[in-house]
Write a structure and sequence with these properties.
30% strand, Rossmann fold, binds adenosine-5'-triphosphate, elongated
Length: 296
């Protein structure tokens, strides 16, 4: 099922084009990242689909249905740190959040358990570390058992331990079947936590797909032999080859599916070609991301 589908969303703030014609689909069970540098339009996108920012153009649709206020019950979101009361306990803050959402208090122990604050629920909010505050915010968003959780830069400002805890928590929540949409400018985070990604740059969508696809953007082998012309001609006869380019001392050969280097080597050998270089190339998400930004 599609959790959300956007079609041609655009937003300008005066002369600033924050978002241009964004179309994407997020499916149930995905951990979906909006990845991009500061100012690329991530928060604007989340704000639009949550109905707190109004788009200039385009549409969006939740749960394959006509938009309706009642859908909000199925969406939990942490866009910024909620206004928790410092002198009230975590539990009492969640009681206020439950009242606002019209949800029974009986859900509070469940959400505290999920975020690992079951032993700290009675303690005052002001005694919490920043990481615990962030986890309480996520607990609050989970009240009422939403089917999708939206997080804007969930690890911003946290120390390494806090970052690890939030990442682990996101994976745990996703494992319960909750679809997650998060904004991040950190490649490593997306690689560790997310299944799918949309890369934004200056409000433009420059890549969308699975994180795996981005890490292995095509399958590439480096190949060289003493007769590079004959090698090129022979390689181009392989049906799975989708491209070839020259790179320093070797050919960079792209395949449409994962190549078996052994089979290719033996096939070339049968045609009288001895390779003096054969190496698999995988591009990291990082170099691919940087390439995408450069192309812009
Ligand atoms: P960040 O990680 O810095 O929050 P972002 O990717 O979430 O970045 P947005 O906050 O969506 O990006 O901002 C996109 C662009 O729109 C930026 O150029 C930003 O300065 C501009 N912008 C955002 N909100 C407003 C506003 N209320 N008024 C004017 N310009 C805005």
């Amino acid at each position: 099922m599609n959790i959300i589908e956007t079609t041609g969303l655009s937003k300008s703030y005066g002369k600033v084009h924050a978002l241009n014609n964004l179309s994407l689909t997020i499916r149930q069970g995905e951990v979906f990242a909006l990845l991009g540098p500061n100012g690329s339009g991530k928060t604007t996108t989340l704000g639009i689909i949550l109905g707190v920012i109004f788009q200039n153009n385009g549409t969006y649709r939740w749960f394959e249905e006509e938009n309706h206020y009642s859908q909000r019950r199925k969406i939990g979101a942490v866009l910024e740190m909620p206004n928790f009361y410092p002198y009230l306990s975590g539990t009492n803050n969640l009681k206020i959040a439950s009242d606002i959402k019209g949800i029974d208090y009986s859900d509070i122990p469940r959400v505290l358990r999920i975020v690992g604050l079951e032993d700290r629920g009675k303690h005052r909010f002001r005694t919490y570390s920043y990481g615990m505050k962030q986890r309480l915010a996520i607990a609050s968003a989970l009240l009422g058992n939403p089917s999708v959780l939206i997080l804007d830069e969930p690890t911003n400002g946290l120390d390494p331990q806090g970052i690890a805890e939030i990442r682990e928590l996101i994976l745990r929540i996703a494992a319960e079947g909750i679809t997650i949409v998060l904004a991040s400018h950190i490649l490593d985070e997306v690689q560790k936590v997310c299944s799918h990604v949309a890369v934004l740059n200056k409000g433009n969508l420059i890549f969308k797909g699975s994180v795996k696809e981005m890490t292995h953007p095509g399958y590439t082998l480096e190949m060289a032999s003493s007769d590079m012309t004959l090698l090129r001609k022979t390689i181009l006869e392989i049906p799975e080859v989708s491209g070839i380019e020259s790179e320093s001392e070797h050919w960079l050969v792209s395949f449409s599916s994962e190549p078996d280097a052994g089979i290719i080597n033996s096939m070339l050998h049968n045609k009288g070609i001895l390779l003096n270089h054969l190496s698999r190339r995988t591009k990291s998400l990082e170099s691919h991301f940087l390439d995408l930004l450069k192309k812009q």
